[in-house]
Design a protein that fits this description.
Helices cover about 50% and strands about 10% of the residues. With about 120 residues, it is mainly α. The chain is elongated and about 55 Å long.
């Protein structure tokens, strides 16, 4: 039986899965996971900026905390899904998209595939 990957989106409200590999669905899932992490990073930066400003209102801080809570939940989901893939045999694991030195770049420029001899890590 092929190893399944939990996808970072729902299908009609249900958890979606795909066979692990280098196909288009896995690439789309990698890109979506990366967008989630980059968005969480931007939310954190914005919240820090607001916290530094003396004239930031309580309402603005509450909104920032709401965004941070949502971003944290999403980032934990991504980490959990990536952890699930670590439990799969190395031969079934595709490369994982990571944030390059410039987190504003999203796309194929930051695709990092593990070398064939590194055990998939």
């Amino acid at each position: 039986m092929s190893e399944l990957r939990r996808l970072p989106w729902k299908d009609d409200g249900r958890t979606a899965y795909a066979t692990m590999g280098d196909g288009i669905v896995n690439t789309m899932a990698d890109v979506y996971e990366l967008e989630i992490l980059v968005g969480a990073s931007r939310d954190a930066e914005r919240a820090e900026d607001l916290a530094r400003l003396a004239d930031t209102s309580k309402a603005e801080l509450r909104i920032a905390v709401t965004y941070l809570a949502h971003a944290l939940r999403d980032a934990v989901d991504v980490a959990t899904m990536r952890g699930e893939r670590l439990a799969a045999p190395a031969s079934a694991r595709p490369g994982v998209l990571t944030v390059a030195d410039n987190p504003d770049i999203i796309g194929p420029v930051i695709l990092e595939k593990p070398a064939a001899d590194d055990g998939g890590r």
